[in-house]
TrEMBL record:
Keyword set includes Coiled coil: yes
Name listed for the protein in its UniProt record: ADP-ribose pyrophosphatase, mitochondrial
GO molecular function: ADP-ribose diphosphatase activity
Subunit (UniProt): Monomer. Interacts with GLOD4.
EC number: 3.6.1.13
Limits of the Nudix hydrolase domain: 128-284
Compositionally biased spans, kind Basic and acidic residues: 1-12, 74-85
InterPro entries: NUDIX_hydrolase-like_dom_sf, NUDIX_hydrolase_dom, NUDT9
Function of the molecule: Hydrolyzes ADP-ribose (ADPR) to AMP and ribose 5'-phosphate.
PANTHER family: ADP-RIBOSE PYROPHOSPHATASE, MITOCHONDRIAL, NUDIX HYDROLASE
Domain of life: Eukaryota
Coiled coil, from the record: 182-209
Length: 296
């Protein structure tokens, strides 16, 4: 299933929720049938909102479109800033990029730093659930082995999530995946240099083995607006024997409040599109997902 189809099929539900995260701002309501830009809607009157933290001009944020010194190159690599979308070309209207998945009821950038796509990377670290003797545990109903992944509890909204984060300008996605996992799930920022070296050694083993790119593209995210949206590359790194992760202590850090191994199943309630990514991992690894055999 391609990213662009996903964006349309989901009708980006989370991208239309109110109030907007971290604010009391209520979006204009967008009914399902009016999400797509192809549908004429003369009376569409979205609310304008860009967070003060973004307008303050931190290094991760663009200036306002109206600033004369700012002339972004949309749909291409703009210096160190990647303004290409994983979903192909997006339209520019009145100098502003237009969300490829449709209307959200809000214009401006909200909490997002970049006009257009804001790129993130989501590392999905998995292992098989095992008993005390080291044998894989299968689910009593589906008969399939149970897969576990490392989840963090986000400080901003309290939801469980994949420990991902934003791609820094000029940074390779593979570096972001490793950095974010270290910072959020291993608290690497607070470690001594000797501990950091040990963590780096184990992460090198984990991130240098076979990997599965699970998803690339638009994400249905509550921070999205008509002019700024989240995109991600979700990549699964699987520790088949569990030995690498046995040498690493999970410890929440940076944006994470808690961190733990979570059993994968359709009962998970996760942040943004993360449940969808986790389901794709379970399918690719032929692991347990649902007790209902009809779901496949």
């Amino acid at each position: 299933m391609s990213g662009s189809n996903d964006a349309k099929e989901n009708s980006h539900n989370k991208a239309r929720t109110s109030p907007y995260p971290g604010s009391k701002v209520e979006r204009s309501q967008v009914p399902n049938e009016k999400v797509g830009w192809v549908v004429e809607w003369q009376d569409y009157n979205p609310v304008e909102y860009t967070a003060v933290s973004v307008l303050a001009g931190p290094r991760w944020a663009d200036p306002q479109i109206s600033e004369s010194s700012f002339s972004p190159k949309f749909n291409e690599k703009d210096g160190h800033v990647e303004r290409k979308s994983q979903n192909g070309l997006y339209e520019i209207e009145n100098g502003r990029p237009r969300n490829p998945a449709g209307r959200t009821g809000l214009v401006g950038r909200g909490l997002l730093g970049r006009w257009g796509p804001n790129h993130a990377a989501d590392p999905i670290i998995t292992r098989w659930k095992r008993d005390s003797s080291g044998n894989k545990i299968s689910h009593p109903v589906s008969g399939k082995n149970i897969l576990q992944f490392v989840a963090i509890k986000r400080k901003d909204c309290g939801e469980w999530a994949i420990p991902g984060g934003m791609v820094d300008p000029g940074e390779k996605i593979s570096a972001t995946l490793k950095r974010e996992f270290g910072e959020e799930a291993l608290n690497s920022l607070q470690k001594s240099s000797a501990e950091k070296r040990e963590i780096e050694e184990q992460l090198h083993k984990l991130f240098n083995q076979e990997q599965l790119v699970i998803y690339k593209g638009y994400v249905d995210d509550p921070r999205n607006t008509d002019n700024a949206w989240m995109e991600t590359e979700a990549v699964n790194y699987h520790d088949e024997t569990g030995e690498i992760m046995d040498n690493l202590n999970l410890e929440a850090g940076d944006d994470a409040g808690k961190v733990k191994w979570v059993d994968i199943s359709d009962k998970l309630k996760l942040y943004a599109s993360h449940s969808h990514f986790i389901k794709l991992v379970a399918e690719k690894r032929d692991a347990h997902w649902s007790e209902d055999s009809e779901t496949d």
